Amino acid sequence: MNRLQIKRAKNIYADSSIDLIMKSLMLLTLVLLLCSNGSLGLANNVTFDELMASALRSLVVDSSADLKSYSFDMEMSQEIDLVNLSTNETQKLCTRSLGYGMANMTQKALKLYMASLSHTLGDKDDTSAIAIEEYLINDTIYMKVDGNWTVIEMPGIADTWATQNAMTQQLDMFNQSRLTLIGSENVEGDDCYKVRAEINMEAMSDQLLEDVTSLLPMKSINYNEIFRNMTLDICYWITKDTHLLKKTEIIESFAVTPQSLGITGNQSEDMEMNIKSTVTMLFEGFNESVTVSLPSEATKAQPFPMGLIASEEVSTIRDDNETLINGTLKNDVIA
Questions:
Q1: Whole domain around residue 323: which residue ranges?
Q2: CA dist 56 to 72, 179, 201, 244, 293, Å?
Q3: What pLDDT score was predicted for residue 102?
Q4: Could you read off the pLDDT of 132-154 as tens digits, one per residue?
Q5: Which are the contacts of 48, defined by CB distance < 8 A and separation ≥ 6?
Q6: Which CATH number covers residue 323?
Q7: Which residue has the higher pLDDT, 189 or 21?
Q8: Predicted structure pTM score
Q9: Cβ(207)–Cβ(265) below 8 Å
């Protein structure tokens, strides 16, 4: 067997490990974005703009109290630097996602459609796409990923709707953050106040940890390590006439290693991933008629494997790859 054949066999394992890491990372990123709720109030020393923003906060909360429905567009871009710590070589992965959703607050029902396209920078032939359809009905999440339905039931979690509901999540973060009024801008024809939210990650880490582990209870993931190096920058646009949330922009940065995701193996020990995500949400259709109906095929959804441990997945993949590699070696010897 020549060196090229040996390298090809080894790459089978490496590519599968990286694929697993990226799938785990995508799931973790979505959960982090869903659960990024601020937990820091106004400080004692405030500026005039902060006082104005505080007054605006009260108006927004009052205006949103009787909100019955809304729709939203979502756009997410994600840059992932996959760093080989041994060679300092970096592979940049890019993901672009577009989504549309609507919610009926009275019925506690939400649906979201999202499509994502990922590619390696400099090699657009190495491209993958994923389509997601999600429904949140009371305390149950139904998710369709590439044609397969799964269901997550969380009857013991009283705040499931508040955690997952896009508008409530943004309002909670807005209400609990230190705010600064930074100007005015026109958004889709609406004159808006632009407000910056200052997030103290150390102060909010406990709540974030509780929210994330309730949705992604994988014991192998070291959430504390991930949160320690995480930063959030948030801006809100509030309509001047109705004092409703019109737009949000969240920039999230953090670094993870395969070990912090609970993934082990010789091929992944010297890797680090630096992730930067920008999520923009545009809200509209306030109090318009919204009907959220669960598709009939979703009622046959399989339970989501909440107890699945990432390291066990790697172990299974490792076993499969060893068989495949051994088979490759055997065939090469026979040849």
A1: 3-334
A2: 22, 10, 23, 10, 35
A3: 93
A4: 999 988 878 899 988 899 998 76
A5: none
A6: 2.50.20.20
A7: 189
A8: 0.70
A9: no
Which residues, other chains included, contact 239 with Cβ-Cβ below 8 Å and sequence gap of 6+? 190, 191, 192, 246
Q: Which residues of 247-270 are buried (b: 16+ CB within 10 A; e: fewer)?
A: bbbbebebbbbbbbbbbbbebbee
Structure tokens at 119: 């590619």
| CA–CA dist 257, 85 (Å, integer) | 11
Q: How far is it, in rounded angstroms, from Cα 67 to Cα 22?
A: 37
Would you state the pLDDT for residue 310? 40
Q: Which residues of 176-197 are buried (b: 16+ CB within 10 A; e: fewer)?
A: bbbbbbeeeeeeeebebbbbbb
pLDDT at residue 324 tops 80: no
Note the pLDDT tens digit of each residue in 281-306. Answer: 999 999 999 999 999 999 999 987 65
Which of 208, 276, 194, 288 has the alpha carbon at shortest distance from 239? 194
Whether residue 271 contacts residue 14, with contact meaning beta carbons closer than 8 Å, is answered with: no
Query: What is the C-alpha separation between 323 and 35, in angstroms, rounded?
Result: 40
Tell me the C-alpha distance between 24 and 262, whole Å: 10
- pLDDT value at residue 201: 66
Residue type, 307: G
Our count of domains for the chain comes to 1
Locus of tokens 């082990």: 264
For residue 101, name the pLDDT band (cuts at 50, 70, 90).
very high
